[in-house]
Amino acid sequence: MSLHALLSARAAAGRPVRVALIGAGKFGTMFLAQARHSRGLHVVGVADRDADRARLALAQAGWSAEAAAARGAAQALKDGSTWVSDDAAALIAAPGIEVVIEATGHPSAALAHALACLEAGRHLVMVTVEADVLAGPLLARRFHDAGLVYSMAYGDQPALIAELVDWARACGFGVVAAGKGTKYLPSYHASTPESVWAHYGLSPAEAEQGGMNARMFNSFLDGTKSAIEMAAVANACGLDVPAAGLEFPPVGAARLAEDLRPRADGGLLERAGMVEVVSSLNRDGTPVRDDLRWGVYVVVEAPSAYTARCFREYGLTTDSSGRYAALWRPAHLIGLELGISVASAALRGEATGAPREFRGDAVAVAKRPLKAGEALDGEGGTTAWGRLMPAAESVRLGALPIGLAHGLALRRDIAEGAVLTRDDVALNPADPTVRLRDEMEAAFGPMAAT
Questions:
Q1: What is the mean pLDDT of residues 411-423?
Q2: Is 200 exposed, middle or buried (0-12, 13-18, 19+ CB in 10 A)?
Q3: Residue (of 120, 278, 57, 431) closest to 267 by Cα position
Q4: C-alpha pair distances (Å), 291 with each of 215, 254, 287, 316, 367
Q5: CB-side neighbour CA atoms (13 Å) of 163
Q6: Chain CA centroid to CA 438, Å
Q7: pTM score, two decimals?
């Protein structure tokens, strides 16, 4: 039965899927905009550290003041309204909640909320990919063992890529490459929140008027978000990551099959079964034809000559040999599509992608020469960007995950372009985020496989 039919049945029975949203940023607001039009969903509460921000998100998404006037979860459950709160823990623990959406964008907070969901017996949709890359494989295992769903967020690119990979494998195709598009030039690695808007053709005033977060958009630009998302895809899909990090080749949709095949066959990949991000800009800054800046893709290999012939007969875009073919989706709608994950978790008991291995990591690299005593300012900041690295290499080096690279003072000078390590900073082993990361490395790292 389709998700729409299952949601409609719950609505007809007077038992809508009861949802809690933690974090009222852009992703959450987009979800709210569609949730009010989705029969069978009831957003019981929205929690944000700034309750006024949550109220503004609801208003922007078209909710009336009366619909968001509940004085607590109990009233919301009784009359179908929505509770606005600054208390995420209370909302997660409220009786009747089935699915929690974690959309804060803050990895430490997201991991704490994940543990609270485990304790309360809630399914979790993890929008905060930074947290997923820090400890997602461990969390997914714990949720599974508890009979709960831990899911990537449909509408965000990692879950959409995972869907394409699953489709390909279920059809019997070998997955050669999978990933997404983005706007990239090598110089972007040095971008800061102060310089980011020029790269988007915006003034700071225009960005502020549009409610755009400079650190978030800088993370998109400087390569960090791509590294985080491809680590998540590698861990969910059992794909490998490039040894030297993402190369961001300038490749348009029409050339995906030709260029994203193994080097042994004339392509750019180290080997089959890799993640990669393609740039919408050539290295001289000119636009790539048929770019995939907003989309996702998969490249597959025909297992037989007959299948390759079918690729041609049915109009797939193939490489020159006809053996490799590409399919892509040109856009993603983030929070507007998030209800798919919520419904899938509650009604099918299935995740829309979930990490199962630790194959990829996103590690901190110095954006400029850094001095001892200087404090790291995290994802999208001025001090470091996130680079994709094979997890085994990250653990061997003791590399510092970009998700931990915030508010930590450096013990020594660091050269521009150097990978930061745990020894370069003073990590607190008792910090819950650090402890959970350590547990994940112990359970899923190279030593766990020996």
A1: 96
A2: middle
A3: 278
A4: 25, 9, 8, 17, 27
A5: 21
A6: 21
A7: 0.95
